[in-house]
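re the bet — no i am not wrong, look at it urself. input seq straight from the record:
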Amino acid sequence: MERDIEQLNVALNKVKVLRSNVRSVFESLSSGLRADHGDEGKENKFILELQDLLTLVNNNLRDVENAVGTLSTPPGPFSLGNSTHLSQETTLERQQLYGQLVNSYKWTDKIREYGAIAASILASNSFNKTYKTFGTKRRKTQTSNHNVSPEVIENLITGIDRLLPDVTIICNRPFVPNPVIQASLGRIFKAMIAFKGLIIEWVVVKAHSESTDLWTESRYRVFRKVTENCHAAMLHFHSPQMPELAVRSFMHWLHSYVTLFSAPCKRCGSNMRGNLPPTWRDLRMLEPYHEECK
């Protein structure tokens, strides 16, 4: 059995090499006469190059035939169960069901394999986060940061507004008591921040001329990249034990984008790279970096 698998792997590798060299032939044909062929006799050089590639493909094809010839035939037909009846269908739509069934089987097989690996890892690393009780002592009731009074959230937003005077904050409550604030950072951009209690749930950064919709991205690439970095910072500063400090830290980090189009990258020293300014801010030092330089 192991020998059959080894021969099958050899045959598959031969097929892979054949496909790669066939692709080289088509790439050479599509490129045509190139500058590296020179000015004199470039047609003859191109023909010789094409002949060498075709000879290599012919040798690869011979290797594939030899490798396939060494494979042993299956002992009998594969049992496909009730799915064999799909071959009797005459409609085009139902003939495609078998391929979909095979893909579904592969997907569920991978899910089963990854689930077994995850179960073994979790079994060896037990995470006991519950409160342990001794004797008749009651379990401590944990307070939720999702269900808080609107006054607490209002005081937090007012404190952030005083802490950052150059940031204009407009608070809306479409779903009481959870607010959606619009933080305008000067003329740079505006950020729509959705709260669930004292927890930041979603951030979208857009230009001032764009809508305040939470579910559509900005049409500008720079603000889409800033939105991605805001999501990373939102997860970094998340702290269920100290939610107010987490929100203040995130807003202080967001305020560092006031120099988005003026501050150069701390690593390469340039303002633009890949047609983008430094869109990343260090989570501790708040220094600007390009995505390629961080």
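see?? The radius of gyration is 31 Å. told u. also The beta strands are 167-175, 178-185, 189-196, 199-206, 280-281, 288-289. so pay up
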